[in-house]
Amino acid sequence: MGKQAVDILDIDVKKLIEMLNAALSEEWLAYYQYWIGARMMEGPMRSEIEPELLLHADQELNHAVLVVDRIIQLGGTPVLNPKDWLSLGRCGYDAPEDPYIEVVLEQNLKGERCAIQRYKEIADFTNGKDHTTHQIATTILNEELEHENDIEDWITDINRMKEEFRKIRM
Fold first, then answer.
1. Structure pTM?
2. Which of 47, 52, 165, 167 is surrounded by the most beta carbons within 10 Å?
3. What HEC string does the chain produce?
4. What pLDDT score was predicted for residue 4?
5. What's the half-sphere exposure (Cβ side, CA atoms, 13 Å) at 92?
6. In whole angstroms, how large is the CA radius of gyration of the chain?
């Protein structure tokens, strides 16, 4: 990052890099959770939801690219070892051991809500102090909000489908 670019930041850059490395770790975990969950998932609406989850996975990977580039621009070192992802991030990872679609979607929903909180914190921390990181955080935050909405809609659709099926059986 250029000297002037660093000089205009009115922020604790070390703390920001720590926050970004936590977000980077969470993005990699989210990517894999979406990717493997989409492939393992079983149940109603799988054929409709699987490609959307794979799209979400790609978007999480794109978030990781934005975050890692910003860490480097700020003069930091991105987390280098995947074994550190769980300890640096707080969103965790839920293996799709139960591949039923609703379980997988609930796991992804939990991750999205955690990511929303992470990027809100980064956006708040950088607001008016680091315009570039703030813009990155709000861009990612908006996509995470869309992901949450998508998942909530799918869960609603599956529940509605189950209700209709119960009515037919009665």
1. 0.93
2. 52
3. CCHHHHHCCCCCHHHHHHHHHHHHHHHHHHHHHHHHHHHHCECCCHHHHHHHHHHHHHHHHHHHHHHHHHHHHCCCCCCCCHHHHHHHCCCCCCCCCCCEHHHHHHHHHHHHHHHHHHHHHHHHHHCCCCHHHHHHHHHHHHHHHHHHHHHHHHHHHHHHHHHHHHHHHC
4. 65
5. 9
6. 18
